[in-house]
Write a structure and sequence with these properties.
The protein is an alpha+beta fold. It is about 30% helix and about 35% strand. A 7-stranded mixed beta sheet has the order 1-2-3-4-5-7-6. A hairpin with a 5-residue loop joins strand 6 and strand 7.
Length: about 160
């Protein structure tokens, strides 16, 4: 498995994989209406802004996209970690988070924060993240998705 920076050419595949990940892996924690509103806005051109000012990584194996992660070092924030439903439980998410943490350490960040979807809380806990508070992610449509704010101290 290889982790690399996302390119403009990757964005259509990122959008498709992101949609599939949400629809399959989040379905037990969010309603069909929430999932539909969440995924309806996922268009390749909307990811272009993430290529500027953030570290946008993709995990791939044999040319197949397995997942992606986005970390904003200036905000000490993991914006996203998503894994293809075809690649779950293969260490993809863990490898992406470790890569983002390494970039954060190299950038002088000592603590990372994220808003975990409900289905991913235990995943992040296994990686050393601590639950801080319940929160919501507000979609552009106004729909609110329950989430959990989590942090991790990166000092070694």
């Amino acid at each position: 498995m290889r982790i690399r920076r996302v390119t403009q050419e990757d964005l259509p595949e990122v959008a498709a994989m992101h949609r599939a990940s949400i629809l399959e892996l989040c379905a037990a924690h969010y309603s069909a209406a929430q999932l539909s509103l969440w995924t309806d806005a996922l268009r390749p051109h909307k990811y272009a802004a993430l290529l500027v000012g953030r570290e946008f990584l993709v995990a791939e194996d044999d040319g197949q996209m397995l997942g992606f992660g986005v970390v904003d070092l200036s905000e000490s924030l993991i914006n996203a970690t998503y894994v293809s439903p075809k690649a779950v439980r293969r260490g993809v998410g863990r490898r992406l988070v470790v890569a983002m943490e390494d970039l954060a350490r190299q950038g002088g960040v000592s603590r990372l924060q994220l808003s975990s979807t409900l289905n991913a809380v235990h995943f992040y806990e296994r990686l050393g993240y601590v639950q801080r508070e319940a929160s919501v992610n507000r979609l552009p449509t106004g729909t609110e998705l329950p989430c959990v704010v989590m942090t991790k101290d990166l000092k070694e």
